[in-house]
Amino acid sequence: MSRVETQYNAIVFDNDGVLTYPTDESVLTEASQRAFAAFDVDPTPSDIRSLVDDLSVETVRRLAKRYEVDADAFWRRHETERTARQLAAIRDGEKPLYDDVETLADLAVPTAIVSNNQHATIEHIVAEFGLEAMFEAYYGREPSLRGLERRKPDPSYLEAALDELGVESALYVGDSRVDVAAARAAGVDAAFVNRPHRRGYRLDIRPTYRLDSLAELASLPTK
């Protein structure tokens, strides 16, 4: 099969909702419960929920203060639990790849992953699905509050991936407004993939392209 040339020197992908199905919220909730339990804390359901709906450094510090635990230590444990729970979901078939990921093998430019998920989780995804030959670089957040702070729309991890690939002209493919915002901040184009879980999603920032499938990347303007 012929390789597909594009106008870009590289294409970078978000993971959750783009390459793999989004993680079920019950998996994230269980991870938070396990992290609190490691500190002998029994949080309220609303506080557990806030780590899904309102995840930020401020939220973590607020909860750590409320339950009298060290914020950095709690967050490191929380990241470990999220990675472990997601790996279990992957192995149980609950977080598969989208079928159209296989079409990325036809792209003739370097590809990478930049995700707001934990870097360890992305490492597991690459290994479990045998994607080492497909992606030349991959970045997730570091297991620290600093890593949480650098989540998209902060462009830090996207810029790191572009530096590793040695390119400036790139397309970032995501499924949310923070992906488009991160691309803008990094000075690259953005494609929004309208996956089924995004039907009716209000995207209040304009991407360069809207896609219904990753297979459509092959039809972008060529060099």
What does this protein structure show overall?
The protein is of the alpha/beta class and about 220 residues long. The chain is built from eight helices and six strands; from the N terminus they run βααααβαβααβαββ. It has a six-stranded parallel sheet with strand order 3-2-1-4-5-6. Strand 2 (about 110-120), helix 5 (about 120-130) and strand 3 form a beta-alpha-beta unit. Helix 1 crosses helix 2 and helix 4 (about 70-90) runs parallel beside helix 5 (about 120-130). The longest helix has 21 residues, at about 70-90. It is globular. The relative contact order is 0.19. The model has no long low-confidence stretch (mean pLDDT about 95).
Structure described in brief:
The protein is an alpha/beta fold and 223 residues long. Helices cover 39% and strands 13% of the residues.
Termini Cα gap:
19 Å
Helix percent band: 25-40%
The structural class is: alpha/beta
Number of helices: 8
